[in-house]
Design brief:
about 280 residues, mainly beta, Neuraminidase, four-stranded antiparallel sheet, about 0% helix
């Protein structure tokens, strides 16, 4: 599902969906998407990143090699998220290759800017990275290190093997407010500095975390309580925040998008979708 911003900065949607892309893989399907200023869509899908033009009639591969997963600089292995900066550079979380790749505008060769391609617990390593979030100036980014149950921060000009900074998640802690169980999605608040919102796939909840602290506050769902009513989530993945701090969560286990108004822990279902496809809900 695609959510658009209204002129007041709030996300709005129509109630009728339009299928604009369908994954080749009927099992796992697509993951992260990014939409740039002219409505061009970038989609992380299996072994490549697709670029879908605004007219939705032409789709091309802009990162990775079609039908060829691998660790080479021109390959990806189950990419999870994608971001495009104002210069057209493409950034991808490369899940099974344990790295974040940068493809400079129109280049098919990726440069590793986080992780070193080998899974591990060091600050220079990643273990199955999922989603990431960039600050408003593209100076740095936060990446969810799913396999290590943590979030690391890297400069956008980082290089392979460089150390990240641990900003969220504490290993071997029994405190649910300091440790994670399968973090997945991440979003930066557009109005609060260094406030992270992180979906916890294994805990069925969303936690709000301030960078440089080591505890968070649950803001949606109930930790370790899966469910389908308006106060519960089941295996949440993607997340977006608008300027009024309304939270939009891809509630994967319940096949729906939930909106939590600022300060509320009662969700409103704003969209459902069939499996393995992306739908566009036009602004009104």
């Amino acid at each position: 599902m695609i959510l658009y911003k209204g002129i007041d900065g709030n996300l709005r949607w129509n109630t009728t969906g339009e299928t604009v892309f369908k994954s080749r893989n009927i099992t796992s399907g697509s993951r992260g998407i990014y939409i740039d200023f002219d409505d061009t869509m970038y989609i992380a899908d299996m072994d490549v990143v697709w670029k879908l033009l605004p007219n939705r009639t032409m789709v091309t591969v802009v990162a990775g090699t079609l039908n060829s997963t691998g660790p080479n600089s021109t390959q990806l292995s189950y990419p999870q998220d994608v971001y495009v900066d104002r210069y057209g550079n493409i950034y991808v979380t490369d899940y099974y290759n344990n790295r974040v790749q940068k493809f400079i505008n129109n280049s098919a060769v990726g440069i590793t800017i986080a992780g070193n391609g080998t899974s591990g617990t060091g600050l220079h390593q990643l273990y199955n990275p999922t989603f990431f979030a960039f600050d408003s100036t593209n100076t740095y980014f936060y990446v969810v290190d799913y396999g290590n149950n943590r979030v690391l921060k890297f400069p956008s000009n980082s290089t392979s093997g460089g150390n990240g900074t641990l900003v969220a998640g504490v290993n071997n802690s029994s405190n649910q407010n300091t440790s994670f169980d399968q973090p997945s999605g991440i979003a930066l608040s557009p109005s609060l500095i260094d406030n992270l919102f992180i979906t916890l796939y294994g805990e069925h909840s969303v936690i709000r975390w301030t960078s440089n602290t080591f505890s968070g506050i649950f803001v949606a769902g109930i930790s370790d309580v899966p469910g389908s009513n308006s106060t519960l989530l089941r295996n949440p993945r993607g997340i977006r925040i608008d300027h009024n701090l309304n939270i939009f969560v891809a509630d994967a286990g319940n096949h729906r998008i939930q909106m939590f108004c600022a300060g509320s822990q009662t969700g409103i279902t704003v969209a459902d979708s069939n499996n393995r496809r992306i739908q566009r809900f036009l602004k009104i």
